[in-house]
Structures are given as C-alpha cells and as structure tokens.
Design brief:
This protein is mainly α. It contains 7 helices and no strands.
Amino acid sequence: MTEDEFDAFYAAAFPRLTGQLYAFTGDHGEAQDVVQEAFVRAWDRRKSFLADNAPEAWIRTVAVRLAVSRWRRTRRWLELMRKHLPPESTPGPGPEHTALVAALRKLPQAQRLAIVLHHLCDLSVEQVASETGAPVGTVKARLSRGRAALAQHLGPDEADEPVRKEGGRVR
C-alpha cells in the first residue's frame, strides 16, 4: 500500500472505527487514542497491509486489544491503590521541624541555600559552590554564618542547659 493509499484508507476508516470503538469503550477520547495507535502500528506494515484483505478488521482488532489492555492496566492500578490507601490522617510536622523551618526562613537566602544544600541534600562544599556559582571560600563563610545564625534563632538545647538543684545551684 502506498502512502497515498494509506492516507485515503485512514481518512475513510478512522471516523467509522472511532465510532465503533466509542461504542465499545464508552469514551470518545479513549476510542480515538486506541484507533490512532492501531493506525500507527499498521503504518509500519503498510506494504503488506492490503494483502491481508481485511485491513479495517485488522485495525479494529488491534484497537480493541489496546482498549482491553488499557482497562486491565487501569483495573490493576485501582486494585493496587485500594490495597494501599493513605492513612486517614497524617500527623503534622513535629515542633523541631517547625522550629527549624522558621529559623531557616530568618536567614538570608544565600546562607539558607548553602545550609540546605550542604546539610539537608548532603552536598560537599565543593558541590554547593559548583551549584550556586559561588567560590568555595564564600560557601564556607555562608555555612559558618548560617550555622551561627541558626544557633541563635533556635536557642540552646535543653540538653545543653545546666540542670539546677533545689535552691538554684547547678549540679
């Protein structure tokens, strides 16, 4: 089948096949998709296509099989999703997380980016420098200043505070 013959066959058969597949799938967009995919597959074998004596039947069969395959995939996906539903309620972030995010927001953007890339994304100082376009020394300074600012914003840990005995003395 030449390209012109295939184009003429496509123009004549596509609307008819789409209507048939629409009746089968109940979804016009899905019908168009599977018929189009069947025509794409037929294009690769267009030289021997007319020799089959039933090119429209071949396209219809391929399109139906594609639609059924999509249904099966969708059904398996839905079954999987039903088995693994998300929990009814997800706990919110803890107080430590909230405090860290609030403290990070108080930092200048360059320091915040350096802290996040180095400490949260586990990038080396050299990788942070490469990603931000800043010299290594600048990244080190930003990390140092950022950590100092975070320590101020977060305050001392309870573990770092001295434990006081009755009477106010430190033990």
